[in-house]
């Protein structure tokens, strides 16, 4: 005997009586208990039961209409119903239990903008263990950087394909250059959009990996070409004989306000023992090397870093692009969100996003 | 005996006498002849000869200073000297002859914003055959879409690495759906950001590849989920029973003015026998299939298409990202530039960009 539910748009739940508690809640993790054997279902849960034929129909308490799957979903009950339903159905089909991230579905819901609490495979709502805090967006929904939380972000594209991203804090650390001394006052020339350093000590490139040698010159010490960013950092430390303010000013002429933001991240990475080099070929700001002993024994860079202001708003399409590219070149995508300097910190939040197959 | 040149900033050339004509021009493709054996060199050509030690020095005719390589380049003679020199040196080291894309260096220079004419390997300026029209930009230089020309675009990043792109017109063509008829007035529901089509004929998905089936339902004909774009196209042709204007209005609510632009490109691709599906996972607007007979025998999509207005201005970093990703998934990146409808055309220009190793 299949059951029917009663949908009340006033509080956006579907109530089901009969033996609903045992049938849907206890054994299959839908809804939350009311009095007796009655349960309350979120709209996506009710839609899923209709979809599977487990619930016969849902009666709208206002007008009395009897709604099948089709009629129920075309009412789109609740916000973002379509994308939430698609992800709910996808994760259920992959063998996960999941509940709306709110009381009374879960006792201690994850905060932030989480839509669902997803339980570890084999476990359910009653086991008290959450695997993922899941947020669901359509591909056209803006995601402010301030709303990032550790957990899973599911993006539903316009053709209902779902891409899952694992979002986490990811502070870069490394051991590069811990003992290396910088040279003092190397001669350098400032060109339109780069700097040439004449005859620096070999170690500047070969050990601490600053700059890029110009090829084909017969000198004891190679001529190095540095980016304005590297040059500003070196000038600030007296390693090259340019005025730091002049180099920074040139940097701002070339790339506007991005320059100072990138310079803060560059400096923070160097201070963490990580070597940042340009990420241009990957469309990122930096590619980073965590443990550079010498350029001869250089491995592959591990991270791609993109720099944004703290108030940045992500478009999911750009997230897909960045993360996909990083994955394709076996690196992890990290976003550096640059805010005001805070006491005791560098004002930068580091977040990694990686593709996830649940 | 090495020669010296005379640099005149008034006309930005370096003149060299002695046997310069035979030594630099006739056998090695630098500069253009003046009277007698004298030649004129562009600043990058003179810099390259200084760099290689072939030219001893360049004397500035104004002040009389004798300039070596270092002094000459820190004057940055001419626009964009640094990036032009780096690319000139790179292509020379790869065995190419190249000349400034202007008279009198070449008799029939390529137009547009080309900086150099690059000759086929083994051929020089006198052979009258140009392999590439080469344009050089730094990674921070804007490239208006209106300036795209068939040829090569060299982008020099902040650390002097060079990425070469082959730029060409690339009109998509295909054989998909040439004979297929669309259904008539299938029932459909418009949801917030997608459309559900109820029980359409199987061929709508399986032959003409519209939409995406919802899984797991026991029906003779599958329920299809379509993007607003697909739905607008189908509604305009009476294939589904929604008002075209209503679907388009919803599309604009969801993605603003991009919607109409994407719809024009979607329709143009379908008319060309190409099937466009969403490119979200690749950060593009569409992935396209040229020869779809049935979804069962579907190969891989060949193109990634990104839609821009005709007045768009590219940032080289975004070009690097798009092209790199396309290359990584073995597809070609195509940009669809959407302008005003023109008489007899669809107002769309199609350009492909591919990585090139010269």
TrEMBL record, chains A, B:
Assigned EC number: 4.6.1.16
Molecular function per GO: nucleic acid binding; tRNA-intron lyase activity
Pfam families noted in UniProt: tRNA_int_endo, tRNA_int_endo_N
Classification via Gene3D superfamilies: 3.40.1350.10, tRNA intron endonuclease, N-terminal domain
Lineage: superkingdom: Archaea
Lyase listed as a keyword: yes
Record HAMAP family: EndA_long
Keyword Ligase carried by entry: no
Subunit and partners: Homodimer.
Active-site positions on this chain: 289, 300, 331
Keyword annotations from UniProtKB, A to Z: Endonuclease, Hydrolase, Lyase, Nuclease, tRNA processing
Protein name: tRNA-splicing endonuclease
Family membership noted in the UniProt record: Belongs to the tRNA-intron endonuclease family. Archaeal long subfamily.
